[in-house]
Backbone:
């Protein structure tokens, strides 16, 4: 197929390009550009086939202007011409995405879930009689329905949070029976993957503790399949007309909780700098803002050490005075602290009398659960970079028995002391668990 009359032909020469124009054809009011494949270095067969079908393309520039395309200009010219090419569509400007706030982009840790589980319904049995030539009384041949599928909780060591668990799960229904004594297929099992150490509760009572990898617990049993009329065949009833429906699956409301949300939990009042500290020692990205209750959901960051040990640190939302009375969201926040093995009390040195904060924090934990404040812990004095913090640090050390780690999450001052002390707390936790014959939680 040759180019029509009125086409500007681009010829490839040794020293450059040469253009020759002919008289425009009335049928083609605009000039077209065609490239002769005198060398495979200019155009591929795919591009030439594309140019073959672009006779109706109208150039954006005047046909009377003769332009010699240099090799470096050829790619841009090809992109303009091949508007329908998928490869060239990527070079076009992408649409700007709508700006999303940092809170909406942040993924948070979930250590408690309420799940409604429903087992699959059993398939119904059918009422059928055998029909065959020269066999007048074939008898009943209705098959039974298949059993409904179970909903099963399965512990998986690759899962760390309950964020992927949905609020509702329903098992697959069994298929109905068929004639010729064919039974319906059973419904498939529905598996819910949960982290190790998940405790399953029903009506406040623990019904399962999934501590080992691959351990399973049937959360809801599927219904039994219905019976076909073949099942009711007896010497007294040679032609039964009875078939039953499948049973409904079991329905339960379960509460899933993690025994261990993280190894360490950052405990402090709002605006104490817990989220900034987690950002400084890990790759977690919790929201940081100059107003209280910026963090409404826990975030977990992983601290890596040279011996390939990984310590999980949780940024627990700030608690307030009276949290044990469920003031605000006190009980929900205190539950997160309960799932940490050791604690890091974060105190704001910029406020007057920072030791009062530490006393109030321990009081709230003790009122929520006796012995919670006595877990292995460390005291972190944050915002040491502020001028008024120097004097408050000396007063805090006088009124606190255990050692205080002064640091600045903003500037990174003295973070090494925190990381070393955190490793000591983790090693003590591992030794304690192993001495009791239990496996410590590894991240």
Residues:
């Amino acid at each position: 197929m040759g180019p029509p009359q009125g086409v500007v032909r681009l010829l490839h020469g040794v020293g450059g390009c040469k253009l020759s124009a002919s008289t425009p054809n009335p049928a083609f009011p605009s000039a077209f550009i065609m490239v002769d494949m005198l060398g495979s270095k200019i155009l591929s067969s795919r591009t030439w086939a594309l140019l073959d079908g672009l006779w109706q393309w109208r150039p954006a520039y005047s046909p009377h202007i003769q332009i010699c395309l240099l090799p470096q200009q050829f790619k841009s010219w090809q992109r303009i011409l091949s508007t329908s090419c998928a490869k060239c569509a990527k070079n076009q400007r992408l649409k700007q995405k709508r700006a999303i706030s940092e809170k909406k982009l942040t993924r948070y840790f979930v250590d408690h879930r309420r799940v409604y589980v429903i087992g699959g319904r059993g398939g119904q049995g059918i009422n059928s009689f055998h029909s065959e030539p020269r066999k007048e009384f074939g008898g009943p041949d209705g098959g039974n329905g298949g059993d409904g599928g179970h909903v099963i909780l399965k512990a998986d060591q690759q899962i760390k949070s309950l964020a992927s668990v949905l609020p509702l799960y329903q098992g697959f229904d069994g298929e109905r029976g068929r004639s010729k004594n064919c039974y319906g297929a059973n419904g498939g099992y529905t598996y819910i993957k949960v982290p190790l150490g998940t405790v399953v509760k029903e009506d406040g009572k623990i019904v399962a503790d999934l501590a080992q990898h691959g351990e399973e617990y049937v959360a809801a049993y599927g219904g039994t399949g219905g019976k076909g009329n073949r099942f009711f065949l007896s010497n007294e009833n040679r032609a039964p007309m009875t078939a039953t429906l499948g049973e409904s699956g079991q329905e339960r409301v379960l509460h899933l909780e993690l025994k261990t949300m993280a190894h360490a939990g950052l405990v402090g009042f709002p605006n104490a700098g817990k989220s900034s500290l987690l950002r400084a020692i890990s790759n977690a990205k919790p929201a940081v803002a100059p107003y209280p209750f910026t963090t409404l959901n826990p975030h977990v960051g992983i601290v890596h050490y040279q011996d390939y040990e990984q310590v999980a640190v949780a940024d627990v939302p700030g608690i307030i005075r009276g949290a044990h009375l469920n003031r605000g969201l006190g009980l929900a926040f205190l539950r997160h602290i309960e799932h940490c093995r050791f604690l890091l009390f974060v105190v704001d040195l910029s406020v007057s009398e920072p030791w009062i904060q530490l006393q109030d924090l321990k009081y709230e934990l003790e009122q929520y659960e006796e012995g919670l404040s006595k877990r292995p812990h460390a005291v972190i004095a944050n915002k040491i970079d502020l001028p008024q913090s120097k004097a408050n640090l000396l007063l805090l050390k006088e009124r606190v028995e255990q050692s205080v780690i002064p640091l600045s999450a903003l500037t990174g001052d003295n973070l090494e002391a925190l990381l070393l002390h955190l490793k000591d707390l983790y090693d003590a936790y591992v030794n304690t668990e192993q001495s009791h014959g239990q496996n410590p939680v590894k991240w």
About this structure: Residues 1-41, 54-103 have pLDDT under 50 and may be disordered. The longest helix spans residues 415-435. DSSP finds nine helices and 17 strands in the chain. The longest strand covers residues 340-348.
